[in-house]
Design a protein that fits this description.
By secondary structure, this protein is mainly α. It has one domain. It has 9 helices and 2 strands. It has a two-stranded antiparallel sheet with strand order 1-2. It starts with 13 loop residues before the first helix and ends in an 8-residue tail after the last strand.
Length: about 210
Amino acid sequence: MPGSTSPRHAYTPDSDLQFVEACAPELEAYLLASGIYWPLAQPKGLTALPRLTLGGLLLALRRLSAVELDLPALQAVRLTRARTQIETERLRWTAAMGAKMALEMRARLNLWRAYLDDLSESPARSADLYPAEVRQRATLQLLATAPETGPLPAEARQAMQALDARLREIFAAGSFVWEEQLAPAFSPPEYWFLYGRPTEKGERED
């Protein structure tokens, strides 16, 4: 993903759409299995798909929602079909979804904490990775606010607040760090961490 000093690239929905379509028929088996990560069948001749997680699925759906009205008719139909299947499984397996989301939140909290630790130790090098690494924080937000999650346990809520406080100490508000087409799906203040970057002294971007 582009940084504030790099040329802006346009978001293309193909990879997210392929991922969502691959996840839809696997959801039931995934929810009934243990573990957070689920391998997907890799499409021949296409970009390799990441493993299924609920957070990854929510993030892909949110990104696609930002460009849904501009999708070609065939892609729009594919998205509607996959989303309908996913929503059906969410209704059928609400408790299992909530339990799996709680497990994933703990894992992603650890990954996000590790990045912030790296940021403290090597600010210049780790700050360049922020547009990619902040994906963990955005996914945490989607998991925390999903209806299946319910009220956050105190431990998870306190951990997120503590990590947010660490980031805010060095955060410089500025432009959206991902592709510009995605910004409408991640509005501030809920996604404040996508509007700016960490700096050594927290100065505001020019």
